[in-house]
């Protein structure tokens, strides 16, 4: 247990210091020494701590789910800093909620350990194989699923997956670790478990299932059959805006009398929708507002197409025009009009309603959430890993629009802005630092596309057959040439037209 030592800007976060925190800070009311593990969460970062871990904490505050505590894990060496910080504070997290009207803080305690990050991932495999583990949940980002348009599923040619195929007992990847652990569970009689993806992918449970089964099939077909028959992979939708942590966020925690090097700030909104398909039990999540339903896909589509695609509409042009945060983009008269026009004219027509909310109403809610000036969510963070996010968030809408004869000019402009951003230079001449796992290759293609715009669309792993669609290709090439010759703002003005000609898109 970390010592109860006060430091300059407040109390060091620890179990021992919890009783001494300022009264305005909510804290665990349960005895953390009585918690028992039930969940291994892989990819433990800010979003998980503000969302899934918070829901489990709320159950624990009611005296429930005490055997569903979370053990964190990662297969990425760069997460060692986070692990060290959380170990030093007994795995507690400070959450600071930022609404436009007020700020509040609470300390959550639903996490009780963070496994060693090591070559071969033996500790992770052992913990998943332990019969106390009943759910393995994931926030490994869209790019962490090794999806390949060329393969129509798992990219089995990826070097890390090739390693796991040959070295099943010392895996490198998340899915290799899960398969290795399930093999042990099958032999030991520990039984199946639930793999719960919480990433922003349409059909995330089905994608996780395909990844696990595809890898298992290449290692042990009998194991793959057992997994397919007994394990469950529910689809889910998660929704909460959680910025990255920097000096400002640390200072916010200090303002509440807490010294926490890895606090989490978040908006005053959360939603979690999950298919009720858990083969080894689950916490009573419905008691803290989680929606358990067999109709997750409509919620997924609304959120991914309106919020996640909307983020990409803003982030790339914000980077190019040196607008630092999403809230500042929404306050920018040109960028906000751009956002609203695309949302209402080119995205909403391809989104179905969910119980109690129409797509148009959700756009209004998202506009309010994006405009919250207290949430300093940077355009750089939101634009990160566009090579995974655009194929998942933007391109499916473009395909639907082309199939239905709907407008795609604004979405083609979004793609052109991304291509221009990947060249690494803002409109004012300042440099954009690497911001994608595939940044060097993207930058090379982006510079080529300055003279031959179609080169960007020839990235088959991203655009597939969209390069062959004449309407989309013509629109994209037009916008990219205009951006390079006249700048991003000029392209936005050309798309928007005079303000008096805007109609529905100014609503919300």
Automatic annotation (TrEMBL):
Record-listed E.C. numbers: 1.1.1.67
Regions crossing the membrane: none
Domain of life: Bacteria
InterPro entries: 6-PGluconate_DH-like_C_sf (IPR008927), 6PGD_dom2 (IPR013328), Mannitol_DH (IPR000669), Mannitol_DH/Oxidoreductase (IPR050988), Mannitol_DH_C (IPR013118), Mannitol_DH_N (IPR013131), NAD(P)-bd_dom_sf (IPR036291)
Pfam families assigned: Mannitol_dh, Mannitol_dh_C
Boundaries of every Mannitol dehydrogenase C-terminal domain copy: 296-481
Molecular function GO terms recorded: mannitol 2-dehydrogenase activity
Keywords on record: Oxidoreductase
Annotated Mannitol dehydrogenase N-terminal domain residues: 38-287
EC category name: oxidoreductase
Protein name in UniProt: Mannitol 2-dehydrogenase
Organism whose genome encodes this protein: Falsiruegeria litorea R37
